[in-house]
Amino acid sequence: MARPRIAWLPGDGIGGEVLQATRLVLDESGFEANYIPGDIGWEFWKKEGTPLPNRTIELLRRTDCALLGAVTSKPTVDAMRELSDGFRAKGARYSSAVLRIRRMFDLYTCKRPCRAYPGNPGNLREGINITIFRENTEGLYTGAEWDKIPQELYNIRGMERVPRQAAITIRAITRKASLRIAKAAFSHAADLPRRGGAPNEAAGKDAKKRRVTAVHKANVMRATDGVFLSAARDVAKEYPNVEYEEMLVDACAMQLVRDPLRFDMIVTTNMFGDILSDLGAQLVGGMGFAPSANVGDGYAMFEPSHGSAPDIAGKGIANPVAMILSAVMMLEWLGKKDTAEKIERAVAEVILEGMVRTPDMGGNMGTMAMATAIAAKLKQPSPSSP
Ligand code: ATP
């Protein structure tokens, strides 16, 4: 296979630091690719009036996938204050670069694993292994919102309940997008060995079915989450070998802390998925351990779930593991399963040994020290080698 072309997008804050660390690991793994750097993030908003210049969109169009460090995103008032005068005069409006890419390339599945690597001091409990499937293109993220409600909307029945001075955001949920995200969660579950069975072996008699939990608030948002749940139920019928359950989002937040081992796959709408995945990250050591994949039918972008972490940016102390695990997800998507497994094993070994720990793990080592330790593991023969 020709070398994959990968858009290399450092972005803001710790984005460049964790991406540089990831490159060290990718290179050491023997994976070969053409990495093509691209401009994205806050700096370009301030200088050029957009955090996603057209040249970067063109770059994405001619690459196979993208690796993104992190981008800063701020509320509109702050965005306008920091914009250079010329662009303010031209009426530039801020919109998130990541959201635009997700929509433009129809990256409808956001897959966010939360895995407790043994020995990680931040694990709430050992054994947690949850994958959150977050719908990535609609919900509360369509950008249809008004600071002041347009007068004509008051002609619609039901609007009399909305206070006249309210700002509103539209929550849009379609059956099409709900079916797609539910299928992504169920097909992933169906491809995995049963729980409790040894990996890659036939399921033992005690092994349990995989489980998908659809998370919603249909008792309040009856229309939108009604559509979501109806789609999830229909997909569940196609997968009799996968257990299906439904849970209210508030109960899910509680149960994730109380009994995280009961969860396997979670499928949910955009905003709930965003919130629950930060909660999930905290169960397994924090944002430094939370990778993510934004996947569509023809393109994918891999990024850590964390943001640009301005509080620690430039200090060389960010944990690169979330970014490295995002690259592992990229390798899986590119069909480089062996390399992906090799890197994930190296990450797990370094965490288990506990010799190199970044400050978020209670240690005092830096970003590159962690990456160097993981890269060094790749040089050692794997335990299964003769
Ligand atoms: P942004 O505005 O870009 O979203 P943020 O600080 O609001 O940034 P995050 O970047 O997700 O949001 O950071 C949340 C917290 O987690 C911060 O305290 C940050 O320092 C910490 N954090 C995030 N990523 C990492 C990491 N890779 N290693 C260590 N700490 C991290």
Short structural description:
The protein contains 13 helices and 12 strands.
Structural features, described:
This protein is α/β, with parallel strands linked by helices and 386 residues long. The chain contains 13 helices and twelve strands. It has a ten-stranded mixed β-sheet with strand order 2-1-3-12-11-4-5-10-8-9, with helices on both faces. The longest helix is centred in the middle third of the chain and has 17 residues, at 175-191. The two termini are 28 Å apart. 44% of the residues are buried. The structure holds adenosine-5'-triphosphate (ATP).
Mean pLDDT: 93
**Total helical elements:** 13
Major sheet: 10 strands, mixed
Number of strands: 12
Biggest β-sheet: strands ordered side by side in the sheet: 2-1-3-12-11-4-5-10-8-9
Helix content: 25-40%
SSE string, helices as H and strands as E: EHEHHEHHHEEEEHEHEHEHEEHHH
Heterogens? adenosine-5'-triphosphate
Shape: globular
β-strand percent reads: 15-25%
The helix/strand class is alpha/beta
By oligomeric state, this entry counts as single chain
The low-pLDDT segments are 198-203
Radius of gyration: 22 Å
Q: What gap, in angstroms, lies between the N and C termini?
A: 28 Å
SSE layout:
Layout: E1 5-11, H1 15-28, E2 34-37, H2 42-48, H3 54-61, E3 65-70, H4 76-82, H5 85-89, H6 97-104, E4 109-115, E5 129-135, E6 145-146, E7 168-169, H7 175-191, E8 210-216, H8 222-237, E9 242-248, H9 249-258, E10 265-268, H10 270-283, E11 291-295, E12 300-304, H11 321-333, H12 337-353, H13 367-379
Parallel strand pairs: 1-2, 1-3, 3-12, 5-10, 8-9, 8-10
Antiparallel strand pairs: 4-5, 4-11, 6-7, 11-12
The protein binds adenosine-5'-triphosphate.
